[in-house]
Amino acid sequence: MSSDIATKDTSYTGPMVTLIVGKDRQELQVHTHIFQNSGSSTLAALVDANKPWREAQEGRIDWSDQHVDIVLEMLHYLYFKHSERFGQYQDTPSKPGSSKKEIEGKFSTALHNVKVYIFADFYLLNKLQESAIASLRKILEVRDPELMLSADQLVQLVVYVYDNTLVSSKETPLQAAISDCISGYIMDLSYKQGILDHVLEKYPPLAFNICLKVPKICVSWRIQFDSCEFERQCGVCRCKFTVKAKTFFQATYKQTSNPVHFHCETCNRR
Predict the structure, then answer these.
(1) DSSP 8-class letter at 258
(2) pTM here?
(3) What is the pLDDT of residues 225-242, one digit of tens each?
(4) Which CATH architecture has domain 1-84?
(5) 199, 207 Cβ separation under 8 angstroms
């Protein structure tokens, strides 16, 4: 993906803004017009001289914490109204001996889509989010054993998604895509061994949604999930306390009439 993206479309004229992108602090010049017409109030504010924000006043936006490919994907979408990389994945028959290379390529594209979704979600770019999810689901819904992502690759996606997104009482489209995928793969024993224990131990919200989507999941695993505990922080005294996963998530997902308490027992008694 080329960094001279602004020169590819001559229909835009007028002021430019400088983006500082990646750990190497690469400078990209783009038209302020694409931010103003992006549909994102946040992006528009970054180039609005009437706003007191530093970026708007200096004409420079520091995205050095973002990977260059992610920012370029967004810019390509804003300039040309379609994505450059999302279309790279095509569900075509594999050539003999090429499946491993194809799977690596699909995993790379899937992780790219996840990162683009998270970036677009932060800047309220709904159409870009939808494109990222559509491409991600196309990869995750493959059921050909020769082309499916490995259990290890799925775990890497799980870790990135749940370590970089907020967990609430309702799955985000990105979290739903991941849990739907695992729910579809779950009865394959190799995936069960490689994924379930990891999910159960570190990401109770994902485990809970898998239980909801696959009622006939391994009984022993459901029992193990129901009895596991995870840590919360009290909303009053800020101490740490544990709560059983089943109790908390059933209440959170409104499957029980019991109220959800974010306080420790000491504060609840006050």
Answers:
(1) S
(2) 0.74
(3) 666 666 666 666 777 767
(4) 2-Layer Sandwich (3.30)
(5) yes
